[in-house]
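Good day; I would like, with your permission, to put a structural problem before you. What I wish to show you is a protein chain and, alongside it, a tokenised description of its three-dimensional fold. Please examine both parts with care and let me know of anything in them that strikes you as inconsistent. Thank you for your consideration; the sequence and its tokens are set out here:

***
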Amino acid sequence: MKTTEEQDELRGTVRGLLSRLEGEAAWRPLAEQIGVAALAVPEEYGGVGGSAMDLLLVAEELGRVLSPVPFLGSSVLATYALLESGDEAACAELLPGLAEGSALGALAWAEADGSWDPAAVRATAVRDADGWAVTGVKEHVLSSGEVLLVAARTAAGVSLFRIRPEARSARVTPVPAMDDSRPLYRVVLDSAPARLVGEDGDGERVLGRVLDRGCAALAAEQVGAASYALQATVEYAKTRVQFGRPIGSFQAVKHRLADLYVAVESARSLALAAAVSPGDRILAAAAKSACSEMFSLVAGEMIQLHGGIGLTWEHMAHRYFKRAHATAQLLGPARWHRSRIPLAA
């Protein structure tokens, strides 16, 4: 799909800012100067009402540099959870802050078994004198934001709750992760006071829609990271001399790099299809599955073709390798996503 002049400018602006600012320091300028945090938020809630293509371009650029900013956790998962809930009061209260970047959102969903299946939620919520109380432990939470949304099971089924910010019975702690370029958190809830978001029992539908949106964004991020990893490997192959010749001049290396290029571009097509068809479960599952396996392939070949230096802590190759394997599990592994695709599709 051909991008517009405005979308090309968005990509260039994001890439330029990320080249100047590293790590989490890039988040506030991304949100305030470019409006990245507001892309998915409709104008009526203080956002810019960006397109699915805008989100894809930003996700790709963040993936290229393995940025740790909370775009996926706050601007995609938490934002779409609020929007899909249909809770107008919650959206009006919370989305303007998320759009500005002055508040961060977090969607606490997966649990100890690592399942991202909405039907697998085991945390519980019961009514009390003040509303609701939620108990459970959530893993793989992508931010520690002020707007904490939690999936829990009630008598009516899985539902979505906002944990009250003042709740002392909710503990959010960072956890060690294989990929240290993306912070992860654990949320422990012990009868934490909460407010229902949306309808009681509607959580599986909401989470299913959010999963599809998240998979599309994560697939785009994986494509961006793999594309840069391949580019860096090609450049290295042009300069690394072995037996008196650049290794990129050897036919075997050319074939490997060509195969990687085809894999990246094929996965990019799926990521694009999922992005421009929001809510399409089959495309989202296919994109997440294909892009996860493609990124792992490219990152592994990056290590191999860089030789000894690719195994050192000083070189960036190991960071892309870790991000590849971490994102392969985030939001569900490839095998599970393939099982979500009907055989007749």
About this structure: The radius of gyration is 21 Å. The mean pLDDT is 92. The CA atoms of residues 140 and 184 lie 6 Å apart.
